[in-house]
Amino acid sequence: MATIGKPAALPPLAGAGRLVTSRRVRYRDWSGTAVTVVMPTYNEAANLPGIVAALMALPLPRLRLLIVDDDSPDGTGRLADRLADRYATGPCGPRIEVLHRDGKEGLGRAYEAGLRHALAAGAPYVLQMDADGSHQATAVCAMLETAHRSGAGLVVGSRYVRGATVSGRWGVHRRLLSTWGNSYARAILRVPLRDLTGGFNLWRADVLRTVGLGGAEAAGRSLRSAGYALQVELKYRATRKGFEAVEVPIRFGERLRGSSKMSLAVQWEAALLPWRLLLAGLR
């Protein structure tokens, strides 16, 4: 029988705002942590099975996956249901749940629905993760360990700290767009994170509730971002509230199959959002 070893030691943490004190933790201290991975999908049928298998193989018995499908024309939602049946048994009940939405409203709205759903179900940690294969499942353990040893409310799987790598298949246009988008948002909002736009983020539940998700205080209240700009908005709100955030290096790959959803409308929203947040004086 194959065995899964403990993850290798992590590099030093990159802290946001002030020095983060690291404390020693043992594998058993965090390997039993309950965490819900929220994964929006739209036409990701070609990528989903491999990503799900990689997540289910992690040495995290209390990891659950919430797939949020926006009525994908390629049948991703139906495939997700079949995968949920395949992984129906776990120590905390079914390991995969599928949230079916009526149509495509944007990544931000899908994430908002999924994050609220995970919080309502009592998840103590919630992880955002893309369904296109660009985020490596093997990094989840390192992110959980970092959350425990740093005490941070947000752990960012970062493409732009020392030790991170970005796929050579990522085109020049996408690299420039990502680099410019990060620099632009950071300059306006003064958020002390190198990867402000990245979508691989581990949140403590209380942080998400405080920034406007979950709980009675958030009833009827929506975030401002409908698209990819949600990543910037959540991090801005969290750091403005004084929560600690740290970044860990990841290996970021190009999507495995299919096409990017990065439209001009999404890019325009991302360009306007920092100014909207700044002018609104959100705290």
UniProtKB/TrEMBL annotation:
Q: Which Gene3D superfamilies match?
A: Spore Coat Polysaccharide Biosynthesis Protein SpsA, Chain A
**Ranges of residues in domain Glycosyltransferase 2-like:** 36-211
Task: Set out the biological process GO terms recorded for this chain's protein.
Answer: glycolipid biosynthetic process
Query: Which keywords does the record carry?
Result: Glycosyltransferase, Transferase
Q: Name one GO cellular component term.
A: membrane
- The question of whether Transferase is a record keyword is answered with yes
Give an example GO molecular function: dolichyl-phosphate beta-D-mannosyltransferase activity
InterPro entries to which the protein is assigned, alphabetical: DPM1-like, Glyco_trans_2-like, Nucleotide-diphossugar_trans
**Its family?**
Belongs to the glycosyltransferase 2 family.
Q: What is this protein called?
A: Dolichol-phosphate mannosyltransferase
Q: Record the organism.
A: Streptomyces aidingensis
